[in-house]
Amino acid sequence: MKLIPWCLFNEIEAYTTCAYDENHQLIDMSYNGFNDQQVLKNRQALAQQLHTDLNHMVATYQQHTTRFLKVSNQDGGRGMLSRDDAFIGYDAMYTKDPHLWLWTFHADCCPVLLYCRDQKIVAAIHSGWKGTVGEIVGKVTKYLIEHENCHPEYIYAYIGPSIEQRNFEAKDDIIDLVKDMSFDTHAFYTEKEDGNYLLDSKGLIRQQLINLNVISEHITVSPYCTIENEELFFSYRRNKTPHRNITMIQLKSISDS
């Protein structure tokens, strides 16, 4: 299985899955009712490739909220065999426990990973346009600073493969919500001749982090666009696909790093 890594420190491991394998066979990783048995096999193969098992992975049932929760090794396996036991209505998770892979699903939405190096905390966040205007990344980061004693200068972030501004056309309904965000957002949308806009969702997320004093050099923004890189990623806007990419992260134990 082809994986795109976020290489940062030895004490964490993070990847985004690709839509196709080396033989250009589609790799579906999300339960959508089409071929869920194959999805399970693909997940098991991914776990084996990462030298773990599904009991050391956890997923939520995302619903474009700004809700998040803390998970532990006891939650391992939730959302892995089916959607039935996934945490419903949460779009972000964080953990202090090593060897627990946190998953986030996306197909044009922004996956965001956090690593708080001082407190050894990792987080996985799903930020679609609803989550972005609701400032889910800022809310998770602020919570970690205020309640988990994470210092901003030790927070590292990865904004993963997602739709680029040049392809993200938005109308007034979305832009009005962007204008109502808690900071000046005018630099993150450009009006077109037809009256619609091009929206920089990655930039809005990056600014949420900077507003909380995360160092800009500690924020990695993926150059990949899910719409343009058809050979690598699923894209809902491109073809209404039911399939999803996965971006995931785990904290290693001290002995591993």
Give a brief rundown of this model.
By secondary structure, this protein is of the alpha/beta class. The chain has six helices and 16 strands.
Spans with pLDDT under 50 lasting ≥5 residues?
A: none
Work out the helix count. Answer: 6
Order the strands across the largest sheet as they lie in space: 5-7-10-9-11-15
CATH superfamily placement: CNF1/YfiH-like putative cysteine hydrolases
Cα gyration radius (Å): 17 Å
Main sheet record:
6 strands, mixed
Please indicate the percent range of residues in DSSP E strands (runs of 2 or more). 25-35%
Key structural traits:
five-stranded mixed beta sheet; six-stranded mixed beta sheet; alpha/beta
Would you mind describing this structure in some detail?
- The protein is of the alpha/beta class and 257 residues long.
- It has a 6-stranded mixed β-sheet with strand order 5-7-10-9-11-15. A 5-stranded mixed β-sheet has the order 1-2-16-8-3, with no helix packed on it.
- It is built from 6 helices and 16 strands.
- A hairpin with a 5-residue loop joins strand 13 and strand 14.
- It has helices spanning 36-49, 129-133, 136-147, 172-179, 201-211, 236-239, and strands spanning 3-5, 12-17, 57-58, 60-61, 68-70, 87-88, 92-95, 101-106, 110-116, 121-127, 155-159, 169-170, 189-191, 197-199, 219-221, 245-251.
- The longest helix has 14 residues, at 36-49.
- The chain has a single domain (3-164, 223-251), classed as CNF1/YfiH-like putative cysteine hydrolases (4-Layer Sandwich).
